[in-house]
Design brief:
178 residues; globular; 8 helices; mainly alpha
Length: 178
């Protein structure tokens, strides 16, 4: 089921139909999870996906349909990711988060790509992931990020340039080649 078809499930979910709620989450969660995994890491993606849906279903009655369900959910996921990154930044220096193991298997088989994406600035990574991985249009991403469409295009272009440059760099001692 596509996100366009998911729009039809919103009415049933608003009425409290448990099947509509379940189907909406089932059909949209994989993309929400992938988006969060790219923004904050695989280790946190499950919990943050759950948090995204808790917030979404709590706000379902306020969803006006000005955007697609997909855009709405990804904007909530973006805020959840931002909250998580702020929480991490406030963490005491003596209480570091567990590092992500470089050899952790990536469900999409993109271990090297994920490592490269982590090296992008947050703004460029977000624009790149939303347009090139999640498949949103530049206009949708501009709305999600609250910036002009030209800024999104620039961030994506610079992210591509950064990624190409990283591919040309020799791997640091102990790193796997990308």
């Amino acid at each position: 089921m596509t996100f366009a078809e998911a729009d039809a499930l919103v009415a049933g979910a608003r009425r409290g139909d448990p099947r509509a709620v379940e189907e909406l989450a089932r059909t949209t969660a994989p993309e929400v999870w992938r988006f969060l995994a790219h923004l904050v890491g695989i280790d946190a993606a499950d919990d943050l996906t759950q948090e995204t849906y808790l917030r979404a279903f709590g706000a379902l009655r306020r969803f006006r349909g000005d955007s697609t369900v997909r855009t709405w959910l990804l904007s909530i996921a973006r805020r959840v990711a931002a909250d998580e990154l702020r929480r991490r930044a406030r963490r005491p220096a003596g209480d570091p988060l567990p590092p992500e193991a470089p050899g952790d298997p990536d469900p999409a088989g993109e271990v090297g790509a994920r490592d490269l994406l982590r090296r992008l600035t947050p703004e460029r990574r977000e624009a790149f992931v939303l347009t090139q991985i999640a498949g949103l249009g530049y206009a949708e991403v501009a709305v999600l990020c609250g910036c002009p469409i030209g800024t999104v295009r620039s961030r994506v272009a610079r992210a591509r340039d950064d990624l190409v440059g990283m591919m040309d760099e020799p791997p640091a001692h102990g790193e796997r080649p990308a």
